[in-house]
Amino acid sequence: MASEYEVLIFGGGPAGLSAAASVVRQDHKTVLFDSGNYRNSLSKHMHTMPSWDHEDPQAFREKSVKDFERYGSITMEKVEIETLKQREDGLFEATGGGRTWTGKKVILATGVEDIYPDIPGYAECWVSGIFHCLYCHGWEEKGKPSAGMLAEGDTAAVVPALHFARQALRMVDQVTLYTNGNEQLAGELKAALDAAPAPMTVNSKKITKLVKAPERARITLHFDDETSITEAFLAHKPKTKLRGNLAQQLGCAISPMQTVVVNPPFNQTSIKGVFAAGDCSSPMQTVTSALNSGTCTGGGAPLQIQAETYNQRAIF
């Protein structure tokens, strides 16, 4: 038999927890599915979060779940959902681990996965020496002489590369932009710096491997000419993809940036009754943005349920 709920929330990160924190205030029977896979699982500190600065993300998740206990309307399920569909009767049905759940509304907060570039050692240096966001990481390395910026993937263009490099200059004296063998981009970056000088240099050598140095966030880049350079840290935002395929299973529209298309203010997707929050629904992939969008979906799903209960029209 299926376990029946009003709201099904998929994802136990900031967006899913924020959605649940809103839904619970309207006393709707809700289940939150937490696969235990978090994009920031390797991070030991959160930043840009008032009252939670430099604190452990795992402690934040645990505290959030603890807060739900007094309400009694939220069920937490540690399970990876395998299938999600809308039945002919309009209910949504989720299955995973040999069990089934149904609900009237769906909130997708499944997040994204980072796609690492094909550079040996990159994965081993992720978070510890490679920073994808210089608001989340970097300040702790302030005062060092130099850092690197990897112009590869999403940052393999002049504008985003210089954007990251300028941020890094708030922490260090000089930044080197590494194009990993991309001579055309190297030329474009050099031309941009000739036109508007900054304490930045360009290195177009092909990177053969990355090695985490033992001190703090220091990282050593090895090149195909057998030389190497050690930086205080390396800034780089890799490409991302949606985590899992639940949105695709439901037929939700996906944007060219590979996020779920949503409509403000409640972040409903192209499928009525399906909402999306957090990294999976926006290119602005930050904790604070996830909390905001989670709150929006946690308001939208109950509003629809309440209107439908009395055969009335919802405000959206």
| End-to-end gap | 33 Å
Classify the helix fraction into a percent range.
Answer: 10-25%
Strand order of the largest sheet: 4-3-2-8-19
Low-confidence stretches: none
> How many H/I helices?
7
Broad shape? elongated
Task: Supply the helix-strand structural class.
Answer: alpha/beta
Order of helices and strands: EEHEHEEEEEEHEEHEHEEEEEEHEH
Average residue pLDDT:
97
Radius of gyration: 22 Å
- Residue fraction in strands: 25-35%
Q: Largest beta sheet, briefly?
A: 5 strands, parallel
**Number of E strands:** 19
Topology summary:
Elements: E1 3-4, E2 7-10, H1 14-23, E3 30-33, H2 57-68, E4 74-77, E5 83-86, E6 92-96, E7 99-103, E8 105-108, E9 112-115, H3 122-125, E10 130-131, E11 144-150, H4 158-168, E12 172-178, H5 183-195, E13 200-203, E14 207-212, E15 219-223, E16 228-231, E17 234-235, E18 239-242, H6 246-250, E19 274-276, H7 287-309
Parallel strand pairs: 1-7, 2-3, 2-8, 3-4, 8-19, 10-17, 11-12, 11-17, 12-13
Antiparallel strand pairs: 5-6, 6-7, 9-18, 14-15, 15-16
Fold and architecture overview:
This protein is an alpha/beta fold and 316 residues long. Helix content is 25%, strand content 25%. It is built from seven helices and 19 strands. The protein has a five-stranded parallel β-sheet with strand order 4-3-2-8-19, covered by helices on one side. A five-stranded parallel β-sheet has the order 10-17-11-12-13. α1 packs parallel to α2 and α1 runs parallel beside α7. The longest helix is centred in the C-terminal third of the chain and has 23 residues. The radius of gyration is 22 Å and the shape is elongated. It starts with a strand and ends in a 7-residue tail after the last helix. The relative contact order is 0.18. The model has no long low-confidence stretch (mean pLDDT 97). GO terms for molecular function: oxidoreductase activity. Belongs to the class-II pyridine nucleotide-disulfide oxidoreductase family. It comes from Polyplosphaeria fusca.
